[in-house]
Amino acid sequence: MKLHHLRYFIAVAEEGHFGRAAERLEIGQPPLSLQIQSLEKRMEIKLFYRRSRGVELTEGGRLLLKHARHILASVDVALHEVQRFKRSQGNELNLGFAGGTYFNRDVSTILYQFKCTHTEVLLKPALAGHTPELIRKLLEGKVDAAFIWPLTTMIDGIELTPVVQERLAVVLPVAHKLAVADSTVSLEKLAKEPFVLCERGSIGGLFDTIMAACSQAGFTPQCEQAVLQIEAIIPMVSAGLGVSIVPDSMRKTLSSGVMFLPIEDHTPTTTVILATRDRDTSPAIRKFMASVFRYGGDLAEKK
């Protein structure tokens, strides 16, 4: 028996239909049927009742399904562990980036300086996504470190290192009455405006910072459009669907149809954070963390 037999079996069991399972597996239905027949022959037991509208598991099939899922899950865990071990013994660093963090100038500088001073380490931008997704990938060992926005709660097994603070800015459609070049804008003036915001589940603490800034200005934003990825805010503002508050570095998107303006008075800030696995002692991570701390020290001296 081979692993692909179990994957095919699980697909048919979950779909309850050979045709749908074949589409899910991206193979033809006849080859799939032959593979299931081969598995039944090998195990000397009938796994499915063939019905006119699909298939139904037999008692033996239900028993196999339970163990097949466990076997494949164990294989996936083993592969991830081996890959993580391989990286820990070598000089490869898989990095993740929460949406918008890669626009930050300091993040770019950290990566550039690290690449120049540690030519023996292979930097691999492995994944871009929202913060909760990156935390999951980090715990699964699919990324070694990730630049994220602040979390709302601490997570076991994750170490968080603040990297740099960043100011927030207002982004407006260029045709908006407040969109005046080289000016600033008071948040109070946005109280009656429709907002385009990223969902809290995607950006966590950054969302809370935005809401707190608006609350301090005396209003709660009227969210007309909610998006999953923070980058999606810019084209929606450009289309005139609302205004927003985003990290200032997102002006680097160079999107037409929008204007970024500084916030008057008490400018709210957020923090770009480097997330790593707790007590990760791999050589590449140790070198990268040392580089991040050194850069942070240089920033503090300049200030």
In CATH, the topology of the largest domain is named D-Maltodextrin-Binding Protein, domain 2
- What is the H/E order? HHHEEHEHEHEEEHHEHEEEH
Average pLDDT value?
Answer: 89
> What overall form do the CA principal axes indicate?
globular
- Kindly give the count of domains: 3
The first-to-last residue Cα distance is 64 Å
**What's the story with the biggest beta sheet?**
7 strands, mixed
Helical content class: 40-55%
The total count of strands amounts to 11
The assigned CATH architecture of the largest domain is: 3-Layer(aba) Sandwich
Helix tally equals 10
Q: Oligomeric status of the shown chains?
A: single chain
Tell me the β content.
Answer: 15-25%
| CATH class category name of the largest domain | Alpha Beta
Indicate the radius of gyration in whole angstroms: 25 Å
Domain HTH lysR-type: 1-58
Keywords: DNA-binding, Transcription, Transcription regulation
Pfam family, one: LysR_substrate
GO molecular function, one term: DNA binding
Feature tags:
two-stranded antiparallel ribbon, 3 domains, LysR_subst-bd, D-Maltodextrin-Binding Protein, domain 2, Transcriptional regulator, LysR family, 10 helices, alpha/beta, 11 strands, Arc Repressor Mutant, subunit A, 7-stranded mixed sheet, 303 residues, 24% strand
Task: Please provide a written account of the structure.
With 303 residues, this protein is α/β, with parallel strands linked by helices. The chain has 3 domains: 3-81, Arc Repressor Mutant, subunit A (Orthogonal Bundle), CATH 1.10.10.10; 92-162 and 274-301, D-Maltodextrin-Binding Protein, domain 2 (3-Layer(aba) Sandwich), CATH 3.40.190; 165-270, D-Maltodextrin-Binding Protein, domain 2, CATH 3.40.190. It has 10 helices and 11 strands. It has helices at 3-15, 18-25, 29-43, 59-89, 105-117, 131-140, 200-203, 205-216, 233-238, 283-302, and strands at 48-51, 54-57, 92-98, 122-129, 145-148, 158-173, 194-198, 222-227, 244-247, 258-262, 269-277. Strands 3, 4, 5, 6, 9, 10 and 11 form a 7-stranded mixed β-sheet that branches. A two-stranded antiparallel sheet has the order 1-2. Helix 5 (105-117) links the parallel strand 3 and strand 4 (122-129). The relative contact order is 0.14. The mean pLDDT is 89. InterPro entries: LysR_HTH_N, LysR_subst-bd, WH-like_DNA-bd_sf, WH_DNA-bd_sf. Residues 1-58 form the HTH lysR-type domain. Keywords: DNA-binding, Transcription, Transcription regulation. This is Transcriptional regulator, LysR family. It comes from Candidatus Pantoea varia.
